[in-house]
Amino acid sequence: MIDKKHIYAVLLAGGGGTRLWPKSRVKTPKQFLKLTGPATMMQVAAARINKIVDWQNIIVVTNQMYLEEVKKQLPEINPENIIAEPEKRDTAAAMLIGALYAKSKDEEAVVINAASDHVVDNLEEFTKVMQAAVETAAQNPYLVAVGITPSYPTSAFGYIKVGQDIKKIKRDLMLFKVDSFTEKPNLATAIAFISTGAYFWNANMYVWSAKELKAAFAKLMPGMLEICQDLDKLNSQDFHKALPAVYKKIESISIDYAISEKADNLVLLPGDFGWNDVGDWKVVYDLGKKDLSGNVTIGDEKETRTLAVNAHNNLIHTDGRLVAISGIDDLVVIDTDEILMICPKSKSQDVKKLVERLKEESKKEYL
């Protein structure tokens, strides 16, 4: 068993969430919102990881503009463990720099990478799977992906195909060799994938030793590692001071393209713990508490005020004032201090198109 003091987590908190506009915006992306209960998504994610990792070993990688918000929402995190990216550089840079920071603290660090805006229903199963992934990464020269057991066919996620069984980790957990990745296939392909039983959703949920990840970058992305080469030799203060120069040079690329799709030591543990990435308003509705008419009401205020007459299966977000609806079904109604957005629940993915239009028209005040 690995000593808990060697277990670290990198919580990724720099994303956008444009399909949850107008509540999720540049200044308040979805990880800082209360979409599933009284706590923000980032607070829930951090508390979930804390079941496995001590608070002093949780590292948050965020954008410079969100530094103070992270400190405010997660006072349990040591401020020096919050890595503020001066520029967005995608997940390869975030995960590498997070692992190097952990390695600067502990040469034996094993790192769990987790998003700050995902939902997990079964905390006990999540803890079991992640602990098994940690033990696997600590004892073997593997990069471990936790793949989500698909519960339905969808084109919203990437898919990981597994090959041969490697070994049984626990009574009900099998470790697989990863065969290939497919980025967001169409629905027909997703249906075919799921029917084989060999495909898992890619949740970008990785576990590895910091040393093994550094070795993978040395082999597969040597240029990126060279830019970051000495970070793991620095103390915390100097580490943060070095980041602006690093980010001016480092490439923007996802961890999947940079490492996962090319690594020959990538393995997968299945995760069946009720995972969702809350990618659009329909998912928020599906996760929400329904009233007798199937309506879900959410909001930041302690008391949400709605009036619904002959209205069914709607999602309503209130922002302090009364939202009244009548004779409508299956809609999303999002009321904020600046913007009112209404769309069919079945077209929630298309909210991103509204954001794209605002960008085209340079209406930055609404982004």
The gyration radius over C-alpha positions equals 21 Å
CATH superfamily of the largest domain: Spore Coat Polysaccharide Biosynthesis Protein SpsA, Chain A
Shape label: globular
Biggest sheet descriptor: 10 strands, mixed
Q: How many structural domains does the protein architecture include? A: 2
- Please identify the top-level CATH class of the largest domain: Alpha Beta
Q: Give the % helix.
A: 25-40%
The sequence of SSEs as H and E is EHEHEHEEHEEEHEEHHHHEEHEEEEEEH
Number of strands: 18
Q: What is the helix tally?
A: 11
Content-based structural category: alpha/beta
Low-confidence runs of at least 5 consecutive residues: none
CATH topology of the largest domain: Spore Coat Polysaccharide Biosynthesis Protein SpsA, Chain A
Q: Main sheet: which strands, in order across?
A: 3-2-1-4-10-6-11-8-7-9
User: What is the average per-residue confidence, as pLDDT, rounded to a whole number?
Assistant: 93
Strand content: 25-35%
What does it look like?
This protein is α/β, with parallel strands linked by helices. The chain folds into two domains: 4-276, Spore Coat Polysaccharide Biosynthesis Protein SpsA, Chain A, CATH 3.90.550.10; 281-366, no CATH class. The chain contains eleven helices and 18 strands. The strands form four sheets. The protein has a ten-stranded mixed beta sheet with strand order 3-2-1-4-10-6-11-8-7-9, with helices on both faces. Strands 13-15-17-18 form a four-stranded mixed beta sheet, covered by helices on one side. Strand 7 (158-170) and strand 8 form a beta hairpin. Helix 3 packs across helix 6 and helix 6 (210-220) packs across helix 7. The radius of gyration is 21 Å and the shape is globular.
